[in-house]
Design goal:
The structure holds 3 protein chains of 3 kinds. Chain A is α+β, with helices and mostly antiparallel strands. Chain A contains 7 helices and 12 strands. By secondary structure, chain B is mainly α. Chain B has one domain: Cytochrome c oxidase, subunit III, four-helix bundle (Four Helix Bundle (Hemerythrin (Met), subunit A)). Chain B has 8 helices and no strands. Chain C has 16 helices and 2 strands. In chain C, helix 4 packs across helix 14, helix 5 runs antiparallel to helix 7 and helix 12 packs parallel to helix 15. The two termini of chain C are 42 Å apart. The N terminus and C terminus of chain C are likely disordered. Classes of the chains: A alpha+beta, B mainly alpha, C mainly alpha. The interface between B and C is large, with 36 and 41 residues.
Chain lengths: 308, 228, 558
């Protein structure tokens, strides 16, 4: 990691970026080392009291100034042209690129394939085929960053932005949000899963599965604020939710109700109706703040064994 | 920079007698005067950049949807805009005459020209207020029942937001300029002109900035596109 | 008039009381006399107290951030607090420390002295500027005490306008207010340099520090209003839901970024140009050499100031702006790097055939050059569009701008404080401690921020409360460095204050330096000079052979 911190390249563009990285490292490294070395030599050689020859100290040299203005300018210009040429390829997706729709929201990536298949925080793609991402955001600005692909593009509300890549290795690659998007910015992670053709076809054929909606519920559990009180270790005194589903719940009026779907839904939408014994009625209502989809996802999550 | 007194044919001693000694850092009175005037120029550069943020917004919005900005501009009131431009240009003239009167220490002329300038400024504000009233009546408020719909609605909304922001910022500046002129009118009553000569010259610079800014806004807002 | 050739001056041992009038420090000793002072030197000190306060608040926030990042998924602070910490760190360090740091303290103290003036042009505005700064500072403290703000120092919309439920308006108000103090300082310096130069002090006899302050002031006056207006629009939109940044209203969040960086990129030069000025004073003095390529140095600063206004879009290569705009901004960003390179080469060449003494200010100044060099060169990586796609908003960026702003500006600021401390307080700082602190800061800084380059290349995004486990080792290294750095920063705080009362009395010109500020007493009298100096030669008239093997200054207390 110290010698070559870059993650191994995994897209067609990544090696081109890496070549530029190497050239840039060489150029700037050379300049840095030579200047630092020169400074060191001068400081030692011309330290006060040394016997070095100090006759005719120069206080300027026109052609030297021209030289060290012109040469960097030329070097920069070459790097600029190179960089621009590579950069322009980010804006030229291959014609056969398959569109993938990305909707970013606090704090998750919703991904939809052309055939309607949906994923959350995961993107399955076939090896060797170009993919074009058509991205927008539901709320704030996010940024779609896959280090192994050297790919980054901000995702904005109110407009579409685009990015493309063509994976060259199978495996799972980190997707991470790089535009600060609020408290849980750091948790907006995902995986790009590059599969062989046949595996991908098999994956595409399987219908949507439950884990997706549970994952969505897990995100909502944090983003809607539930975890602020109900997570273990929270400073607020609130009932624990782990293993709650299906258990009887003692209420403050002395009665007991089973923790079924209706009870959970009521507790989210009308928390003051049934107060758990030993707890203060401090939970706010979430009526109007969560869509039916959201509620479904939350309930699926609460039913699951994933509740913390 | 101020005209040398000798060219105006006024004996310098008559004025110097009425003037304060310079602050220690300036050395001479004329250096202090020039520094003050130069300070006002620097301040105006800052002022320009306050408008500059909104103008950058204008350039950005217009670049994204030129047709939308043209469409929005067509709904502005060209007659009032033009009349207001004429009014402010007249005030620029009267303000220049006021400076000349101040340099010549002509008290009566100075006060009249200042008063006329302030009146022209107030007239501008009155017309501007009437124009806002009309704009609201015509549904040109992007955040309330906006009249312009269709594909250019977004750009037109940005145009009108910037229109209100720029003209309101300008009107605020004009109000300040008018108040400054009124203050000098009050202070000049029964007082000698000479001590105020330099201050009025500097204040007039501000007035001219407000005028000039309006001419720029006029072209950007009212004549941004050809009208049929 | 008293003719003072720039360099031939030597101290003559005359009893101080005979030679010198009362120092500015003794013109009234009540708090009231300080709070109502119009003396640019005292205002410089008032600023110094205020920004030191904020430096340590911002530094405490940084310390907590680094402690949190010691582990990949620790919870020393919770995520919400973490976001508030890095926002507070950014806002305080940028607007309440870095921007006023050198200009408002050393600049206020030195610009009139260096040009042979008795005061700045508008002393009352100068004091007003400090009060405005203090008021802005109170607002920022109020923001922190009332729960903080979590938008990041950049206030990006729509996070700031629609989604954050923290004290956005209060924080924006603090920045808005402090902007006016910046503008007033800039305005004052511009007029001062134009109108108050002593006889014979032509433009090309100005010390480079003054050139730096002048260029900085122009940027302050022209850029700051744009920020003020942008924050006003943002706050207005947050309060009323009326504005031009929300797409639902026909607006565009990218416009906010354009406006914000139109200010904030030149603001980088507000922070670093004065630092260049400080280095340009210290290096010739401790190398006993004329600064190499004086005119090129002055023109380079003007060039940086001018081109600095044209490169803001390089913060937006992946934001969704057009690729052609990105290309143009990239080219301009490479061009603005050229004058910076010229300056580094000239500082290096200044050392050639000099008579170099590594006194504490010189360690700071050379440290500044090295760290600025690294910061500048990594800036080229970010200016290259294709590389920025990978590096944008990763720790590489964090490391890069800390090399410029902390490695560069803070090093130079501390170097300047040491160099002029004898002039400011009339006493020497303890040289040995100062050298220890300088090396500690240099090493601690590199340990803190060099690993962050590697983290960025490895793909670690900034502003992450938890991170992937493979980044942990480098983060721990960085946090360790931060500890060393913190110690390095606390040392000068202690011994500089100690030196104010206990240091060895400073002669008027302890470094045998050539600037006009060394031709008056230490500390200077209220009116700076007893006799208005007349300048007859170019600055930096040093001779490498004129100084013997012994250091020219007292070594300080043991």
């Amino acid at each position: 990691m110290i010698l070559n911190p870059l993650p191994p390249p995994a897209s067609t563009l990544a090696p081109k970026i890496d070549h530029l990285f190497i050239a840039m490292a060489a150029l700037t490294g050379l300049v840095a080392i030579s200047v630092a070395l020169l400074m060191l030599i001068f400081v030692v050689r011309y330290r006060r009291g040394s016997k070095a020859d100090r006759r005719n100290p120069p206080s300027g040299a026109f052609w030297l100034e021209v030289g060290w203005t012109g040469i960097p300018l030329l070097a920069f210009f070459i790097i600029f042209l190179w960089s621009t040429a590579v950069f322009s390829q980010y804006y030229r997706p291959p014609h056969n690129a398959a569109p993938i729709y990305v909707l970013a929201k606090q704090w998750m990536w919703r991904i939809q394939h052309p055939n309607g298949r949906r994923e959350i925080n995961q993107l399955h793609v076939p090896l060797g085929y170009p993919v074009e991402l058509v991205m927008t955001s539901q709320d704030v600005i996010h940024s779609f960053f896959v280090p192994a692909f050297r790919l980054k593009q901000d995702v904005l509300p109110g407009r579409y932005t685009y990015a493309w890549f063509k994976p060259t290795r199978t495996g799972s690659f980190t997707l991470t949000c790089t535009q600060y998007c609020g408290t849980l910015h750091y948790s907006m992670l995902g995986q790009i899963i590059v599969m062989r053709d046949a595996d991908y076809a098999r994956w595409l054929a399987t219908p949507n599965q439950e884990p997706d909606i549970i994952a969505q519920g897990a995100v909502l559990f944090r983003s809607a604020g539930c975890s602020g009180c109900h997570a273990p270790g929270s400073s607020v005194h609130a009932p624990e939710l782990r293993g709650l589903y299906g258990r009887p719940v003692p209420l403050s009026d002395g009665s007991t109700v089973p923790a079924d779907d209706t009870y959970l839904l009521d507790s989210i939408l009308e928390p003051e109706k049934q107060i758990v014994r030993g707890f203060a009625p401090i939970m706010p209502t979430f009526r109007g703040q969560l869509s039916q989809d959201d509620l479904d996802a939350l309930l699926a999550y609460l039913r699951s064994a994933e509740v913390p | 920079m101020s005209t040398p007194d000798a060219q105006l044919g006024i004996p310098p001693a008559a004025q110097l007698a009425a003037e304060q000694p310079p602050a220690k850092q300036f050395g001479t009175r004329s250096n202090q005067d020039e520094a003050t005037e130069f300070g006002m120029w620097v301040f105006l550069a800052t002022e320009l950049m306050f408008f500059g943020a909104l103008l950058l917004g204008y350039a950005y919005g217009r670049h994204l949807d030129p047709a939308g900005f043209a469409e929005a501009s067509r709904h502005t009131d060209l007659v009032i805009g033009t009349a207001n431009t004429a009014i402010l240009l007249c005030s620029a003239l009267t303000m220049s005459l006021a400076i000349r009167a101040a340099q010549r220490l002509e008290r009566g002329a100075l006060m009249s020209f200042l008063a006329v300038s302030a009146l022209l400024g107030l007239l501008f504000l009155a017309l501007k207020g009437y124009e806002y009233h009309d704009d609201i009546d015509e549904g040109l408020v992007p955040w309330a029942d906006f009249r312009i719909t269709g594909i250019h609605r977004g750009a037109a909304a940005m145009f009108y937001f910037l229109y209100y922001a720029l003209t309101a910022l300008h009107a605020l500046h004009l109000c300040i300029a008018i108040i400054v002129v009124l203050v000098y009118l009050v202070r000049l009553r029964g007082a000698a002109v000479a001590p105020f000569r330099q201050q009025i010259t500097v204040a007039a610079l501000y007035w001219h900035f407000v005028d000039g800014m309006w001419v720029l806004l006029y072209t950007l807002i009212y004549v941004a596109s050809p009208r049929s | 008039m008293n003719a003072v050739p720039h360099a031939k001056h030597r101290d003559v041992p005359v009893p101080r009381e005979v030679l010198h009038p009362q120092s500015y420090l003794r013109e009234g000793s009540t708090i009231w006399s300080w709070l109502t002072t119009r003396d640019h030197k005292r205002i410089g000190l008032l600023y110094m107290i205020a920004i030191t306060f904020f430096f340590f608040i911002g530094g405490a926030a940084a310390g907590l951030i680094r402690l949190q990042l010691m582990s990949a998924s620790g919870n020393l602070v919770n995520d919400r607090t973490y976001t508030e910490l890095f926002t507070a760190h950014g806002i305080i360090m940028v607007w309440f420390f870095l921007i006023p740091s050198i200009p408002a303290t050393l600049g206020n103290f030195l610009v009139p002295l260096m040009i042979g003036a008795k005061e700045v042009a508008f002393p009352r505005l100068n004091l007003a500027s400090w009060y405005i700064y203090t008021f802005g500072g109170l607002l920022v403290v109020a923001t922190l005490l009332s729960g903080g703000v979590d938008t990041g120092w950049t206030f990006y919309t729509p996070l700031s306008t629609l989604f954050s439920n923290t004290r956005v308006i209060l924080a924006a108000a603090a920045v808005f207010v402090v902007g006016f103090s910046t503008i007033l300082t800039g305005l004052n310096f511009i007029v001062t340099v134009h109108r108050l130069r002593a006889p014979g002090m032509t433009w090309f006899r100005l010390p480079l520090f003054v050139w730096a302050q002048y260029t900085t002031s122009v940027i302050m006056v022209l850029a700051t209003p744009v920020l003020a207006m942008t924050l006003l629009l943002m706050a207005f939109e947050r309060l009323t839901r009326i504005g031009i940044f929300d797409p639902a209203l026909g607006g565009d969040p990218l416009l906010f970024q354009h406006l914000f960086w139109f200010y904030s990129h030149p603001a980088v030069y507000i922070m670093v140009l004065p630092a260049m000025g400080v280095a340009s004073e210290i290096i010739p003095c401790f190398a006993r050499k004329r600064v190499f390529g004086y005119r090129a140095m002055a023109y380079a600063m003007l060039g940086i100031g001018a081109f600095g206004f044209l490169v803001w879009g390089h913060h937006m290569f992946v934001s969704g702006q057009s690729s052609y705009a990105s290309d143009v901004f990239s080219l301009l960003s490479f061009i603005v790097a050229v004058p910076s390179a010229i300056k580094v080469f000239n500082w290096t060449a200044t050392l050639y055939k000099g008579s170099i003494e590594l006194a504490a200010p010189m360690i700071y100044a050379l440290g500044f050059v090295v760290l600025f060099l690294i910061g500048g060169l990594t800036g080229l990586w970010l200016a290259a569009t294709a590389l920025d796609v990978d590096l944008h908003d990763t720790y590489f960026v964090i490391a890069h701008f800390h090399y410029i702003m902390v490695g560069g500006t803070v090093m130079a600021y501390l170097g300047g404080l040491h160099f002029w401390w004898p002039k400011i307080v009339g006493r020497m700082y303890p040289e040995r401690w100062a050298r220890i602190a300088a090396w500690l800061i240099f090493i601690g800084f590199n340990l803190t921020f060099y690993p962050q380059f590697l983290l960025g290349l490895a793909g670690m995004p900034r502003r992450y409360h938890h991170y992937l486990p493979q980044f942990q080792l480098l983060n721990q290294l960085s946090s360790t460095g931060a500890g060393v750095l913190a110690l390095g920063y606390l040392l000068p705080l202690v011994y500089l204050i100690w030196a104010m009362r206990r240091g060895v009395r400073a002669p008027d010109n302890p470094w045998h330096a050539t600037g006009l500020e060394w031709h008056t007493s230490s500390p200077p009298p209220k009116e700076n000079f007893e006799v208005v100096p007349r300048v007859t030669g170019a600055p930096y008239d040093y001779e490498p052979t004129s100084i013997g093997p012994e250091p020219p200054h007292p070594a300080g207390p043991p």
